[in-house]
Amino acid sequence: MNYLDALGLTHETLGPANYCEIGCRLGYSLALSRVPAIGIDPDYEIKVALTAPTRLFNTTSDSFFARDDVAQILGAPIDLAFIDGLHLVEFALRDFMNLEKHASPDSVIVIDDLLPQHMDYASRQRNTTIWTGDVYRLVPILRHYRPDLDIRVYDVDMKGFGLVTRLDPSSDVLAGNYGAIEADILAGKWSFPTVAAIRDHMQPRATDLLANDLGIIAAQRTAKASKQSDRRAAPALPHRRPRLSVIICAYEMPREAPRTILSATAPYQKGLKEDEYEVIVVDNGSSTPLTYDNLPPNAQIVRVPDPRQSPVFALNWAAREIAKGEILLFAIDGARIFSERLIDETVKAHDRMEDAFVFSLSWHIGPKVQMQSVPEGYGAEIEDGLIRAVRWPDESDGLFGISVLAGSSSNGFFGDITESNSFSISRTLFDRHGGFDERFTSPGGGLANLEIFRRYVTRPDARNVCLLSEGTFHQVHDSVATSGKNRWEAFASEYEAIFGGPYLRPSYHCFYQGKPRAGMVPFILQSLQG
After folding, report:
1. Which of 190, 225, 260 lies at the terminal end of a domain, its last residue?
2. Please, which pLDDT band fits residue 236 given cuts at 50, 70 and 90?
3. Which stretches make up the Glycosyltransferase 2-like domain (predicted)?
4. Per-chain mean pLDDT for the chain
């Protein structure tokens, strides 16, 4: 398969609404379009018939996108684009930035010349008939600065072929760092010495996978368009289905659970409207049933049937039988206060990335992790005083100032953590990969929360998203894991009995979302230093 075959298959499978090509030159690739198209090239010499309505611009791409009337010329977001202009990486980068700015989140950008067969082809000056230039350097740049993008490179004959999806037209990351990127380019950064080194970074996919991948992209685009159409066509209903269901498990927490419920509901939670999410607090058999005064309309407390000492059944039961949301957020420990935009940021992450596993880091209130502070005398009375002193809940960020990262999050934002008390998945993923493993029967669930976290972050094609601006705060209580009583040996034995081997910390790739709030800055710096 050569690049024209690959591009033709892309047109045929995706059926774009419009098309934009940078570097149309002789017109062979431009002629593949069957929809309104725009061709940009300062030296075009079209040699073939263009059957679709096409507008040609005899100018550089930089000049075209600098026009005041570019939005009017385009008329609509660019649906499919092809970058095949001047074969220097800084030009290809600017082309990508300009195209993404005028695209939609569901658009697709195709990039040519990513897999040179010989390093002679990859020089910044043309010395050979076949010339790819150093466009290949665009991929490591994008992967470094924009890990939210989905970039796939295919082993198309002679030149390589790249698909970029999950675009974000509002992103200013590349523009904000362009000066530094260009300086690095000229200094030789993002280069590879051999073709083998380029391929090692690219990890190109076989060409026979292109048709399958394009089919998946097309199906996702169609499904999303159908949902949007249904939402527009549906009459307004007084009680619509929530986007997200928050499932919190509580047991013997009369002091702690009310704070958790307050933090998970409006008006403390900011961003989403009440009818866009629901909060389900599962009482897992407390001796005195959990109550909460003035429970908001979108929240409920339910008693699990047949309560067990492990919370895993209660969480799975609520997800299967009670929750209505298409996204499920699990909080295995009901003693953890949510940050004020955790739910809103979670939904945004799922909107930006399908099949995402979204999570936040965890903090312990107090001077040390509570496994250490409790034996030293830290308790509920001291903690209540700390919370009052920072004027929570009126001053929500104050909790960061009286907390430390939990042991499971001790590697910080940019290291691999082992679990989260606020992770979320789509219902589709829940059905496909399962909920909590109900073979964990230890009090508190043992390593069940670590197991489900590991299972999801290490699955093939995992899309892991860590929220930089949000987290949860553990309140001291007589919990199994944080009360100062070391039960790791028993938990590890249960894990090994279930899986036939020891628990291993997960290693995984992660995307990041959000701008850290002021109270989190010390922890971001701590993560960088670590």
Report:
1. 225
2. very low
3. 245-361
4. 91
Q: Which two tokens stand for residue 470?
A: 């949000």
Q: Which residues contact 267 (CB under 8 A, 6 or more apart)?
A: none
As beta bridge partners, residue 474 has 336, 364
Q: Examine the domain organization and report whether 207 and 334 are in the same domain.
A: no
The stretch 60-66 carries a mean pLDDT of 96
Q: How far apart are CA 425 and CA 247, in angstroms?
A: 12
Going from the C-alpha of 141 to that of each of 99, 185, 318, 413, 508, the distances in angstroms are 16, 9, 43, 21, 20
Whether residue 25 is contained in a domain is answered as yes
Q: Are 97 and 175 within one domain?
A: yes
Q: Tell me, yes or no, whether 410 and 313 share the same domain.
A: yes
Check whether residue 340 and residue 432 sit in a common domain: yes
Residues 203 and 154 both lie in one domain? yes
CATH at 90: 3.40.50.150
How long a stretch of residues is the chain? 530
**Same structural domain, 292 and 211:** no
Q: Quick check: 159 and 115 in contact, CB under 8 A?
A: yes
Q: How confident is the model at residue 488 (pLDDT cuts 50, 70, 90)?
A: confident
pLDDT at 480: 59
Q: How is residue 343 written in tokens?
A: 């739910």
Q: What are phi and psi of 168, to 5 degrees?
A: -135, 90
Tokens coding 474: 């553990």
The token duo for 467 is 């929220």
- Please state, in angstroms and rounded to a whole number, the distance separating the CA atoms of residues 6 and 55: 23
Q: Which domain holds residue 210?
A: 3-225
CA angle 411, 150, 136 (to 5 degrees): 100
* DSSP assignment letter at 251: S
Minimum mean pLDDT range among 76-85, 111-120, 274-283, 318-327: 111-120
**C-beta of residue 245 within 8 angstroms of C-beta of residue 324:** yes
Chain position carrying tokens 């995706």: 14
**Domain membership flag for residue 235:** no
Res 438: pLDDT? 92
The answer on 138 and 67 residing in a single domain is yes
425 vs 438: CA distance, rounded Å: 18
| Within-domain flag for 63 | yes
Cα–chain center distance at 222: 21
CB 85 within 8 A of CB 22: yes
Structure-token pair, residue 315? 């969480």
Does residue 152 form part of some domain? yes
Based on the fold, state whether residues 279 and 206 are members of the same structural domain.
no
Mean pLDDT, range 455-475, rounded to an integer: 95
Cβ count near 46 (within 10 Å):
17
Which DSSP category does 117 fall into? S
Give the residue carrying structure tokens 């009369």.
254
Across-strand partners of 281? 248, 301
The tokens for 211 are 């048709």
Contact 22, 83 (CB under 8 A): yes
CA 517 from centre of chain? 19
Q: Token pair for residue 297? A: 């309309």
From residue 444, give the alpha-carbon distance in Å to each of 17, 372, 509. Answer: 53, 19, 28
